[in-house]
Amino acid sequence: MNFRYSFQQIVDLKNNERTQAEWILSEAMGQLRNEETSLHGLFEQKDSLHNEMTHVSSGSVSISKMLLMQNYMNHVDQQIARKHLDVQQAQHVVLKKQEHLSERMMDEKVWSKAREKAYNQFQSFVAKKEQEALDEMATNRFRRLTY
Questions:
Q1: Average pLDDT in the 105-118 region?
Q2: Are 11 and 113 in contact (CB under 8 A)?
Q3: What global pTM score does this model have?
Q4: Which of 33, 20, 30 is nearest to 100 (CA)?
Q5: CA 29, 34, 39: angle at the middle one, nearest 5?
Q6: Its family (predicted)?
Q7: Among residues 71, 50, 49, 69, which one has the least CA distance to residue 61?
Q8: Are 26 and 100 in contact (CB under 8 A)?
Q9: Given pLDDT bands bounded at 50, 70 and 90, which one contains residue 1?
Q10: N or C: which terminus of the chain carries fewer CB neighbours within 10 A?
Q11: What is the radius of gyration, based on Cα positions, of the chain?
């Protein structure tokens, strides 16, 4: 007698939903890492520009070149501010995806526990039937020996 869980398709569906939620979370985390890497690159670019401005200003330099460098520094600062917002947004997405994964995992666990409970009941039923069969055989044997 084989165990067949009538809601196995739901268990499989919940497992697939959890797996899909894991993939989506992984993608969101990858996007967050990309945003953080981009932000880090902007900070390095700003530091490099700052060092260049310091080096150039120690010698003779035209005002137009210094203004150009300062305008570029302002532009990099604006990019950094936007990138901070992008990083925050990516962090928010990651948190939402983590919550979604947590819900999917709980759903899957509920259905897996229900399947496990049904399997345990099935095993108990099979064991009871086997014991009844063994008892019947022992009773019949006893009857044949006593007559």
A1: 96
A2: no
A3: 0.76
A4: 20
A5: 125
A6: Belongs to the FliJ family.
A7: 69
A8: no
A9: confident
A10: C
A11: 34
